[in-house]
Amino acid sequence: MMRTASGALITLLATGTYFMGDLFTIILKSGTTYRWTNFDQSLTYSSNTWTASSDNGTQPLISRGEIRNAVGLEVGTCDLTLSGGQSATIGGIRLGMFAANGGFDGASVKIERVFMATAGDTSAGTLLLFQGQVASADPGATTVVLHLKDIAEYLSISMPRNLWQPSCNNQFCDAGCGLSLAGLTQAETVQAGSTTTSINGSVVKTDGYFQYGTMTFLTGANAGFTTPVRSYTGGAFIPSLALPNAPSTGDTFSATPGCARTYAACGGWSNTANFNGFPYVPPPETAF
């Protein structure tokens, strides 16, 4: 990866005396941006502030492993370790649970190094070390390890973008689908008789309505826990993952519907105009 430095930075490096720290910019798929630094104080550069973990008890400590770059088209890699015990949270959700729920999936990451003549003086500019996205996350009891791949990974995307397949190429409620997930999200309250594997909701929808969707607990012992919905019948949610704690009557959660992404399912949403599949493609074993 070609790296460039400003004239001021080159001059500063030539002096051999300077402070340095790493700036980490993480942009989640939702668009939420986090800027953290491993320096011992917050740093401001180009109108943005990267906060040090000492500034906020809920912010995780962040450190990086070795950045591996190769000549040619080989994908570069780097690991980030986020540590914070039980106090670190992302959006109010405990760090480990946030990662386990896929919160970091597909997030964009930029790592820069800043060199300073005096602590806090970022006027010399930064040096880009790595830019890519989160390929996978390994949540633990007190730490989360993010495995990063650089932007060369985009070259491995299968082409063409749309496959000739019976199911829809769109994801439910993405830009191609056109439906709004926010408008379809249902507020629910846990009813009596619920268990970790069967949760009775307060608003009854048609059987199958929430299948392939998700449920996220907002209050109670399971707050922040998200799981896909395996099935939905008679107002009862059967989660794909058992709840970590027994729910209490009155706990609240949000539920989003899903879609089987077939032409018939799309018709159920009166959205066949946006169906992006080929329902009449014959199966591979069909002989002509």
Describe this structure in words.
By secondary structure, this protein is mostly beta strands. It folds into two domains: 9-156, no CATH class; 181-274. The chain contains four helices and 17 strands. Strands 3-4-2-1-9-10-11-6-5 form a nine-stranded mixed sheet. It has a six-stranded antiparallel sheet with strand order 12-17-14-15-16-13. Strands 7-8 form a two-stranded antiparallel sheet. The model has no long low-confidence stretch (mean pLDDT 88).
Number of domains: 2
Low-confidence regions: none
Shape: globular
Rounded to an integer in angstroms, the radius of gyration calculated over CA atoms is 23 Å
| Average predicted confidence as pLDDT | 88
Order of H and E elements: HEEEEEEEEHEEEHEEEEEEH
- Helix and strand composition category: mainly beta
Distance between the termini: 50 Å
Number of strands: 17
- State the strand order across the main sheet: 3-4-2-1-9-10-11-6-5
Number of helices: 4
In what range is the share of β-strand residues? 25-35%
Report the major sheet: 9 strands, mixed
Helicity level: under 10%
In brief, what are we looking at here?
The chain is mainly β and 288 residues long.
What is the topological layout?
Layout lengths: L6 H9 L3 E9 L5 E5 L5 E3 L2 E5 L8 E4 L12 E7 L5 E2 L2 E2 H6 L7 E9 L9 E14 L3 E8 L30 H4 L1 E4 L9 E2 L13 E4 L8 E8 L2 E4 L12 E5 L6 H6 L20
Parallel strand pairs: 2-4
Antiparallel strand pairs: 1-2, 1-9, 3-4, 5-6, 6-11, 7-8, 9-10, 10-11, 12-17, 13-16, 14-15, 14-17, 15-16
